[in-house]
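Two records follow; treat each independently.
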Amino acid sequence: MLDPLRPSLYLLAVMVPIACTTTPIALQSMTPSVLRMQVAHVPATLGGEPVTVLLDTGCDRVIVTEHSLRRLGLEPAGGQEALIDITGTERGGLETVELRDLRIGGMELVPFSAIVLPPSPSGGAWMIDLVAGMPVMANGAWLFDVQRSQLRILDADLGEAKLAELGYEVVSIVPLSGRMRPRVEVTLNGRRRVSMLLDTGAAKTIVPADDARAMALPDGRALARERTAKAIRDFKVTTNAPNVEVRVKHAEPGQLTGVFGTSVVNGLHRLQALRLGSFEATDLLVQSHESEGLLGQDVLSRVPWLLNCARGHLCILARREVHDDSSADTR
């Protein structure tokens, strides 16, 4: 999904298909591998050519951008697919294309059909080539460690011993409900349990509007403005940027808010705490929406975790020291 408050993080509106049934794409081969990752963006190859892939657990299809097809010399195969985004905006009449030789690290997939996404409504090009949704990510096990800018793709039948070799241990296990639309249960402010879609393609967490109202979540716009201003001031200090005045402008509801006049389209709230398994994120700024809740990268990027759809769970991990005993004195 497109996050209007942090457009620099994701410039692609991740859309989910309607009126279609999706299944995991079969693997051609699978070798455990490690990739450098920026949030949920990873390098891959398609037909031997380098591409940038967004790993998106909130999308139940694979989507390729039109400009990437042209760059790779591929032709759409027709089709009448439809996509609908978080705002309820539908795009119909979208073509499909058969993709071959997609490799993400040591994972190679058999040929499969993807939806072709036209240029953005603003006329700009998408900043990624392909959205790898759950048909890809339902395979294998995916270890996300955003703070280390690292993604590991592992066999789904791995054990805790393998994680220990990599420097991790399982702290808690969170069940998943739904393989192609993975949902997890979280606890908000220590008292309200809410089911949320696990969405690595979302920059911010979205709380269902009914839950936000029931908990009377306080307005978060003032805190958002303060945090934005502080980030700009800190950036100026660390980069010796020109002395540009930074002001926090307070506006009435419905007016443009934020340092640069960012428009808040959904309710913005301050959430004291969100607990996922054994991990708790505190002092969050979350959006509210009448649609389903989404658990986004503002929470997921704070802790290493493992997605294993074949086993139907998500593991919260902790980093541990890996000791090399090869040079130990055995006398």
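The next record belongs to a different protein.
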Amino acid sequence: MVDGVRVTTQIRTGIDVALRHGFREGLVAMDWLLGRHPRANIEFEIRKLGRRRGIGVARAALAHAVSNVRSPYESYARALLIEAGIGPIRVNVRVGRYEVDLLIGERVVVEIDGAVKYDGKTYGRTDEMLRKEREREKHLLNSAYHVRRYNPLELLSHPDRFVAEVRLAHEISQPPASPEHHQPQR
């Protein structure tokens, strides 16, 4: 009870999001929960619900959840890629001297840029932020990474395009399947 109103716990609310809204939103909720609660506590609450509609989705969302996400849109992007079978996906990992939002496989960097990054207040002057971002991207590109940048609206409005572009980048970043590809033609 809060001010006389019945409410659910954070964990139950996160599980309910997965039960009612599906894997994408469920992963967003589970990532958020893992940043605040032990995985075992969330698993316990899911088990308490027994068999019910959507419980498999809640379990799957928790199975893919990580605790180091900094944005709900990073979680949403991961959910799209997981549904498409693209991976492995690492979250907020260091690549050289920089940290990237998502690293797909070994060479594909996916950045989710919110508008707040360029608002001129939160992270400093817009021109300075753009200069730093360009320097960072240049370093990644010159280090043979494939960099893809998206904003939240693109993820929500064109999820299929996002998945297709990341899939293509991931495919072209892979080494050839066999040594014959390296043989000079005669």
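Discussion point: Residues 146 and 172 are 9 Å apart (CA to CA). How would you locate this feature using only the token line?
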